Amino acid sequence: MNQLTLYNLTASEFACFLEGRTIEATAGFYNADATAKNGGLITKGTIKSSTPMAQDGVDRTVQVNFNHFPDISADTIKVKKVTKTKVTAKNTRKKASGKSATDLIRQYNQKKTKELNAWLRNNPNAKAHDRAVKRKAIATQRKRYASRTRKKYTQTTKRAKSKSKYVKQVKYANLSFKPGTKATTIIRTIAKKAKIPLGAIKLTYNRKFPNTYTVSGKPLNAIKKIADSCSTTAYIDNGKLYIREITTGQKVSLQLTPETGLLTHPTPSDDGSYNGQKYEAQSLMRKEIYVGALVYVDDGIKNLGKCVILSGQREYTASSSTVTFQFVPYAAYKKANADRLKKAKASAAKDQKKADLKKKNERSKDKARRQLEKTKRAKRR
After folding, report:
1. 17, 58, 69, 354: least surrounded by Cβ within 10 Å?
2. Is the pTM of this model over 0.90?
3. pLDDT reported for residue 29
């Protein structure tokens, strides 16, 4: 959100600043005789509100608030999930037998085994052919009984299921993605659901997430977190969100010296990410100074060569037009990016290794579980 204070507007000029209208702010400077100038568009947005005209000494002031990026919900993205739940009436009646199909079949098989043993005892002189015929007859009876019994229980189960009722349950859960989803897919999905206007997306390292990835927190913060894990910067420019290396497509367009607007000597302003080579300086307002811009910086004492603008603050008043900016020499910037990329790849490889080990353990457990079931079935037979 930007705040713009205007002085001594006429009634008709004040009427121009209505909520919802587009506003553009240009700034720059002229030299003493106005033979040279440097100015241009620095921001553009939609008016959200404006204060009533107020008297400030001899001046009449009005403050206009406008955004250069659409209002994005700060809420975590939730998605609707509909599930069906079976609801059956409670059956208080008990089965006559009180036994399952497996129990009945086992009981019948035991009965037939006793019958076969009794026949063998009563016919000790029976020929091998007769014994084989008897065993085959018993086996056929067992098979027929098992088939009829299972069919009967299956039909009973189907009838019970057909009488069951299903009710829909609606729940709202955090947005999640299946294992193996790429970072670009997650970013684009978040942006679409949160209605975030996207610019170019070009990840330095388009990693895959080996496990289920769940989005939590504010949409913009969620995208920035993913971009950081891919060693890529997320930034806003001209009302759009860009996820890419900030110097993409940039060329040096400014030799910044005291003669071209540099007002202060660069002072160290490092936060530990650039090995003590991050600097801050102030210059006259130059449209060539913006996030990602490449400029040559030479204060007359030390020539820092080609540098990358990382951030800055513009200040435009009735008496001055300046920009305070933070920058780093291009060589240090490239080295820091290479280190970030190395760490990102190492972190992704570590996550993948953990996921592979987890899958391997699950397969081993599943194999052991199947073997146990197989053994149990063999014993029941």
Report:
1. 58
2. no
3. 67
